[in-house]
Amino acid sequence: MKNYLKLVNFEVNRFIKVYLSLIGITVVLQLVGTFLKSKSYLKEANWMIYKEGVPVQEFLEMNGYMDLVRVLGSWWFIFPIIICIAVLLIYVFLIWYRDWFGKSTFIYRLLMLPTARINIYLAKATTIFLMVLGLVALQLVLLPIENKMIDVMIPDEFQMALTSKEAISSYHPLSVLFPNYFSDFLIYYGIGFMVVFLIFTAILFERSFQVKGIFYGIIYIAIMMGILVAPIFTVLFTGKSYLYPLELFYLEIILGILVMILSILISRYLLNKKITV
Amino acid sequence: MKKLRIMRGREKMIEVKNITKNYGRKKVLKGVSFTANKGEITCLIGINGVGKTTIMNAIMNLTPIKSGEILIDGKKVDKASYEKITFIPDEITMLQQMRIEEAMEFMKDFYTSWNQKRADEMLHFFRLEKTDRISELSKGNRAKANLLLGLALDVDYVLMDEPFSGIDIFSREQIAEVFTSHLIEERGVIITTHEIHDIEHLIDKAVLLDQGVILKEFDAEEVREKEGKSIVDVMREVYRA
Amino acid sequence: MKKYWKLISLTVLTIIIIGTFYIQSSPKASVFSDIYFKKQAGDVKEIQDVIIEGNLLSEHHSSYIAITNNESTSMNRLPSIYEQIKSDTTPEIERLRKEYGSFMRGKSNSGDFYENDDLLIYIDTIHSPNIINGNANIDIEASVLDKKKQEKRNLDIHFPNEEKYDYIAVNRVWFDGEKIKVVATIDKHPQGELHVYAIDWKTGEIVNDELAFQYAYESNNSNQYTDVHVVDSETTQTDPFFIFEKNTYEDIEAEPDMYESQVIEKELMKYDLQTDKIVKLKLPNELQNIDFPTQNGHLLMFTRQSEKEIEIINYDIQSENIASKRTFDIAGDNSEEAHIKIKNGKIYIVTPYKNMNAEAILFVGDSKTGDTLYRGTLEVDGMKESKNYEFYIEYLGIEDE
Fold first, then answer.
1. C95 and C185, same structural domain?
2. What angle do the packed helices A182-238 and A245-269 form, to 10 degrees?
3. What does pTM read for this prediction?
4. What was the ipTM of the complex prediction?
5. Is residue C55 left, alpha or beta, with left meaning phi > 0 and alpha meaning psi from -120 to 50?
6. What chain B residue is nearest to A2 in terms of C-alpha separation?
7. Alpha-carbon distance C367 to C300, whole Å?
8. TM segments (chain A) (predicted)?
9. HSE (CB half, 13 Å, CA atoms) of A257?
10. Mode of pairing for the β-strands spanning B188-193 and B41-45
11. Does residue C170 sit within a domain?
């Protein structure tokens, strides 16, 4: 346990610079974006109302109100999110391959640590999870700040008072990243983390059996996916379900957990018996 | 030296028993067996690509073997073994961006067998700067830092893969000096090399390898005393045959 | 410890922030929480089970809102996955599952049930596409549970000529003590048929196939077509009969190339499930043109809306008389059709439109006495731009207890 925590700390510190730049990019772009969007709305309003003499009511009917949703839909907001997702996705692979490739022989050191090797796997997985959730938390902090910026910059009569939560739920892509219910959050991110486990295990297959290992990894993922969707597909194809919907739901949760446990067990075996530097 | 070995009994040694390994269809190890005793320097000799590094990796459980068995003091390698045996590969096994002090911190963090006093001693002896980054070290200094990180562990066995390859003459001398010091004494050492000259006089036991098989395993001192041959003489006989 | 500050602060902050988000995040939407019904008369308890859904439009925003328990929820937020799965059933089926757990396994929500003290009967039709000829394969699944013996029996039922049918919809299942009667509408393009099958409950054998009515639902060249539908009943388990409505329409060219369908004939028929006799109901003239009544035992309930009021007419099919007539004043400026639901002797009415000037009214009345049980107006508060909103009510439902 202690060694596991040390390894997590080590892995987090290894990625911290890239991670802080991701945070930096997100904060800067989103805040600048909010500022510029508000500014351009104000400019438009000033021009229309004072120069063109359009009544306020008419302007609002034509242009609508200023609110957070306008910011959420802009590239200023979406671009950093896409970057963060992409970098973390790549890092799911890099977190392993960086120890083998290039000049690095660090995998020798990791495998020779006087600790159970599965701790390496778990520490890398934990690092990915922490990084993902950390960015989720960052966004949850940024949204109210951005909302406040709009509130300060735009006169009351021109703004729609949405809370950041309402803004999220009215902008669909975000409600996937930040589901409304904690149970949904657990399901979405649980699935995400299960996929990380699957990819990690597939990587270890590749690292253990090289080219053949790529096929093993793909087959492994396919079988696990098969196990997960089998109950649902049976219902879809036969049109009948022996299990009641809630039972099916719980079965899927159990299967998901089993898939994760199986991934960990197989990875432990590969790390102990099959891995090669 | 010999007396010492007998006194410690049979248990204190690395036993490699009939190990085989394939890379795909290619058989790289075809039944390799030898032992390396604690308190002795055993040298795996052979040209590049005969499987010396693979044997080292196999002893450390860094690569699977197809068959055979490897025992350290009569036990298979597990996580606890890494407090008893260490491996110094031909490249430094630390992150390139780390400073030497950070690398030592890392080792201290994970190994109970880490001996900071000895590390400091070696740092001084090798004239390395704590604050230097590994990526910025010269080739010779990297090899020294690598050696430092391995030898500062209070372990019974040390495996070294080609410690002298591609290193300038002064570094070589410095490293060779280590072999005669208390840093090595009492420990069991396995060293690989394709070039015997620098360390011929240090070696207790030689294992001659070719094409994944052991051609000859012999006690250097015995051969010297009884047959009046140097290791190089024996090598000539064996490899030319 | 000092070495771990980055890890610790990252973890702690993340947990606190995400935790706070979800602790605060109740699915009730704050902006819309000010949409509710303001009581004018009656008892608020009466609207506890009422569900109203509609679209709130304002400027560039629209929200689908549900009002339950007099509290509004933005439906832009779907219920959680767990809730969606959980609510994928009716209270009735939920009860059957609890009581007859093993019998109910593999029974779909779409099937029909009949239950008396001794038996629980289930029938469903399963249509699966036939890969070879593209037609539907129809399977009839039927099983009977003998409650006393706790015996389950699957019946292998084949309707005569079923291979020629495109679709079979079971409208009602009824049991006369010996035979299971299945009322089914059949689609045999372009014709429809209403069948009443009698099935031996022990063997699954079709004892009788009564063709109650046959009709063409697609006009070929005469521009005429007919449709038939079985009248909804709240008392299907006890009624030894069912009522069906058959309407004949004709397409009339109102303007060049603009066709309107017009009812040219309209009949209500009563089918006696015990004797297989069909009787045409003789409706008084004033009920002739009112569509879609609902049935409760011997009473047929018709509703008629005018601008200011909604009228409920109860027609007794036994005495062939209008049993009662009630008028509910809905007032307001409502030219659009109100949503009406009748349940357990109560009528629920909601007028469908609300903006700054137009009022939307929710009304609950006793359908027999005409007494007002509740009356309230929809209030939309708490929007900064309340001047420009429109609220379209699109659904009225009554939750089952």
1. yes
2. 100
3. 0.84
4. 0.90
5. beta
6. B110
7. 12
8. 16-36, 75-97, 118-143, 186-205, 217-237, 249-271
9. 6
10. parallel
11. yes
